[in-house]
Each structure stands twice: as C-alpha cells, then as structure tokens.
Amino acid sequence: MQIITTKQELQQMVTACKNQNKTIGLVPTMGALHQGHASLVRRAVSENDVCFVSVFVNPTQFNNKEDLAKYPRNIKRDAELLSTIGAQFVFAPTPEEMYSAEEMNSTFQFDFAGLDSVMEGKMRPGHFNGVVQVVSRLLYLVRPDRAYFGEKDFQQLAIIHHMVERSSMAGTFGSLQVIDCPIVREQSGLALSSRNERLSDAEKQTALAISQTLFRSLEWAKEPGATVAAVQQRVIDTINAVEGLEVEYYEIVDQSTLLPTDTFRHAIGCVTVYCGPVRLIDNIKYDADCH
Ligand code: PAF
Questions:
Q1: What is the pTM of this model?
Q2: For burial by CB atoms within 10 Å, which of 55, 91, 137, 246 has the most?
Q3: pLDDT digit string, tens, across residues 190-234
Q4: Catalytic machinery residues
Q5: Of the CATH numbers 3.40.50.2300, 3.50.50.60, 3.40.50.620, 3.40.190.150, which one belongs to the domain with range 2-181?
Q6: For residue 29, how far is its CA from the centre of ligand 1 (angstroms)?
Q7: Could you say which architecture CATH assigns to the domain 194-285?
Q8: Residue 194 CB less than 6 A away from ligand 1
Q9: Distance between CA atoms of residues 1 and 267, nearest Å
C-alpha cells in the first residue's frame, strides 16, 4: 500500500491506473478508521481494480474549532488497518496541500436545493458547504468509477447525490456512481463512529439508549393510530429521560426530500444526541408496513 501526500503524486497514480484501464473506487474519510470505514473499503476493493482511500480531517466542514481540534487522528493505525484490507493507495494531504489560503476561508455557497436547510444543516451552518468542497475536490482529483459513503451520515449522502447528479449533467465526474453503504453497528446496537473514541466506558453504555430507542420506535410506528408527530416526540422524550443524554433534534423526514413528512412510508428518522460533550448521530428507516 502506498501513502501519497501531494495532489500531484495522486494525479500521477490515477493517470497510471486510467492508462491501464483499471476501474477506481474511492472511499473519502477523515481517518480514525473503524469497522464501518473498513466495510466501505472492503466493498470498494471488491468492486474495483484499484481502491484509493483519502484520510483528511477537512477543516472547512467544522463550524466548531474545538470539535476540529478534538477530532481523533491516528494515521499510523489507519494505515495499518487499510493495508490489511487491501486498499492500494492512501491519500493523506495536509490542509495547506489541499487548499489555498483563500479556499480555506471561502464563503462560496453551493446550492443544495434546500437539502441543507434542515437537521445537520440548520445546526451546523456551513458544514455541508465544507463537505461538498472537499468531496468535489477529491472526485476531480481521483475521477473514480465509484465513490463510497456511509448511510450513518444520511443527510450528507443525500447532498452528495444531489451534487453529483447536478454535475453529471455537465459530465464533470464522468460515469461516477455514488454507492450508499449501510450503517455498521456494534453488537450492542451502537452505530460505529470515530467520535465513539471520545466516549468513556460509562458513556458508551449510556449511548446505547440511542439506537435502542430508534429500534423501539419501529414498533411504536406500527401501533394502531400511531402518528409521525407522536412517535417523533416519544423518541425525544425517551432519550432525554436517560441521564447523560440530551437530544439536539430528532426529525422523521422523507428519505428523498429530507422534508418533514406525516407518513412513515419512505421515511427516515435522524437523531443527534449529546452524550456528555460528544455529539453523536444515528438514524433509522421506517418500514413499508408502518402507517
Ligand atoms: O463523512 C466523512 O467522514 C466526511 O464528511 C467526508 C465525506 C470524508 C468529507 O470530509
């Protein structure tokens, strides 16, 4: 496995692969890799001739400087994991390599057709602008056939689909396919996240109530007379009743538009919860047999 730190070297490697007609899979990450990332990389390795993984804690998507400073980083451990699962190239640039000073402070606004005005977008102004800034840069540099993203960040995935669909009309990313990968959970149900590293053992135990409540809500949604508003509120109240947890939002929205919905059909519930100082997100898709 080769670790690349410059854009120039990255593009040389990509060109060499393209010249040999190799298909390319890209897995963008911010490092602190866990088995959720590993499942994306395994899939990219199995579906493409070559797999590139980017490891870059993207400063432009953090609206909270403390969160950026505390984001876990461990490139040595990440590289070990990636080499055992067969990724061929790791792109790990510095922020200065990735962006000019002007780009770092860019206030350019992408148009997300409202997908960014709810949930994470509302709570973290500028966040999705930063995500799309870095993801589009990586897609330009690597020109992959397939790019892999986890469904835990469901709103991010919806926004990336939107960005790629709009750009594909102009042929910007060729025949790129964005591949949605399901959430990977611990056996306990806790959704894997790099932020889990910041939880103490006790907090990790407390955090279990998040996924447990989401799974219980699938049953609540099937109760006679259940409404979206009532289930939404019941999830918020149940999680808030656990000492050490505080819900920032729980919204049941349509999976395509991310707008509030009054039916469980094609709906997804997205939650953000503070477990002590750590901000965790999770989501659950409601079944077709709910109301
Ligand atoms: O989901 C993430 O880890 C990041 O938002 C991404 C897609 C790698 C962009 O920095």
A1: 0.95
A2: 91
A3: 999 999 999 999 999 999 999 999 999 999 999 999 999 999 999
A4: 37
A5: 3.40.50.620
A6: 5
A7: 2-Layer Sandwich (3.30)
A8: no
A9: 41
